Predict the structure.
Amino acid sequence: MPETRFTKEFRDEAVRLALTSGRSRREIAADLGVGLSTLRHWLDRRREREIENPPEERQEDMAAELKRLRRENEILRQEREILKKAPRLFRQGGKSMKFQFIDAAKESFPVQRLCQVLGVSPSGYFAWRSRPASSRQREDLVLLAHIRSAFARSNGTYGSPRVTRELQDEGLTVGRRRTARLMRENGLKARQKRRFKRTTDSHHAFPIAPNLLEQDFAAERPNQKWNADISYVWTSEGWLYLAVVLDLFARRVVGWAISDRLHKELALEALRKALAIRRPGEGLTYHADRGSQYCSIEYQAELRKHGIGISISGKGNCYDNSVVETFFKTLKSELVWRTVFQPRAEAKAAIGRYIDGFYNPARRHSTLDYVSPAQFERLAG
């Protein structure tokens, strides 16, 4: 019998019986005098209509479920953001630190959620908030302001020892542990990364002078021992090479030069600048590595012309040049690795500002009892 001959009421009743009677579809189809395939077709159409137009009560259930899922998703998002902002709180512990974080973040997240994620009670937070700040906490706030200022003046390069000395020189009574704690709690830490390029070419036929320094980096006066080396800086235009001459008495850079090519003229330029600025007398020992720039005939002739003793590092011994290597590490960690230089001119200007505007006159050195090279030379008279 064609389907068009069955009324809508008949089809609906057949579907209802198939779904609720507990009997098989074959039995229902036989009772109603319709084919089994026809009954299955009616059932399929019923399911399609319900998917497209669910009953009102089902729509309400779906809306409630959607609301619940959205609420759970928002809770998870908040918890993820809180965990991203406060990972150190779970390593260091301390309810006071957690309460401080909650107080700072309560404009962005519900207090209840913050407390739940950080493992503290809302009542504990509100009790902490209602208590007046202790004298120690007020002192911490004042110290933190000074710490931020010192950290900013160093371009974000000073750790707790140098910041502590800065504060002490300003007349503040503070120890390194307290400074370190306040810096750690407030995320005041420099980041470092590395890029390596080989600059020393020791495979040459030039004569090698003896090692007069022999890792004795102590100097009793300026212009007694100088140390020289070459390093590199990456820019968008390619490598840039930096040659420096360091006076070991105060760890001061007395001569430097930059070029986009690694050749002997670069090292000679740095040396001639140092000689012009310092005009050293007799008794100066000049130490460098075994690179071809420093062992070349022209370079060593320039040193002998000024009566300077020539000292060259031992073969394969990186410690013979460790002081100037330490300078390069400091320069890179405090400037180069923190900056993406575009043209070479930008890098050259930044390095000049760092050496002449910060490193020599202001940067505190642990080997100089945390004073700058310029101040150390003044104090030495």
In short: The radius of gyration is 38 Å. The chain has a mean pLDDT of 82. DSSP finds 17 helices and five strands in the chain. The first strand starts at residue 225 and ends at 235.
